Amino acid sequence: MKQKEIENIVEGILFAMGGSVEPSKIAKAIEIEESEVVKAIESLKAEYEKQKRGITITELNGSYQMCTSPDIYEYLIRIAKQPKKYVLTDVLLETLSIIAYKQPITKSEIEKIRGVSCDFAVSKLVEYGLCAELGRLDAPGRPMLFGTTEEFLRSFGVSSIDELPELSQTQIEEFKLEAENEANNVEVTV
After folding, report:
1. Does one domain contain both 41 and 97?
2. Cβ(186)–Cβ(122) under 8 Å?
3. Both 67 and 104 in a single domain?
């Protein structure tokens, strides 16, 4: 295998893995000596530095990781400060509506209503700033209570949760029936 081919493979592996990778693992994967992997990494590092590229390779406790060049750090800060756009999937919207109408509410109460785990959905809603931890319930295990935030109110154009539309009893019954039908139509695969 030629040096340039080894460098291409090593570069692709470091990019795809994202985190740090031990040269011994790379060597085993491409069936070459570890010293050849280190040589390829050092060559890539020198090439990146010479070309003043936006990426570099950093050594961390004997492993290597592809990283952003410190020279462009200020631009990363600028882009990180830009407002983030997020996508609210049906699952997130359903979870958010439960929190909005039932707050303060625990994850287990949300799961009881939805019938499935809500860890991911609640985490995403907290990450998006639409929900927040409000405290703990004074009960065994002291579960965390969740509620909506000011960002939720801004995003949905209401000044308080009191302005949320009220659901009629007919709508509630329709939602319950729809949820039961979905639950009955779920296939279990093993």
Report:
1. no
2. no
3. no
pLDDT at position 12 is 95
149, 110: one domain: yes
**For tokens 């319930």, what's the residue?**
137
> So what's the pLDDT on residue 190?
42
d(CA 92, CA 98): 10
Distance CA 100, CA 149 (A): 9
CA 138 – CA 52 distance, rounded (Å) = 57
- 0.70 surpassed by pTM: no
Q: How much helix, strand and coil, in percent to the nearest 5, is found in the chain?
A: 55, 15, 30
Query: What is the helix (H) or strand (E) element at residue 135, kind and residue range?
Result: strand 131-136
Helices 34-50 and 23-30 pack at an angle, to 10 degrees, of: 110
Domain count, the chain: 2
| Cβ neighbours of residue 167 closer than 8 Å, sequence gap 6 or more | 101, 175
Residues 36, 110 within the same domain: no
Residue range of the domain that includes 135: 90-185
Blockwise average pLDDT, block size 10, the chain, 190 residues: 93 92 95 94 94 92 91 88 80 92 92 89 93 91 93 87 81 71 56
- Give how far Cα 116 sits from Cα of 34, 98, 119, Å: 47, 13, 9
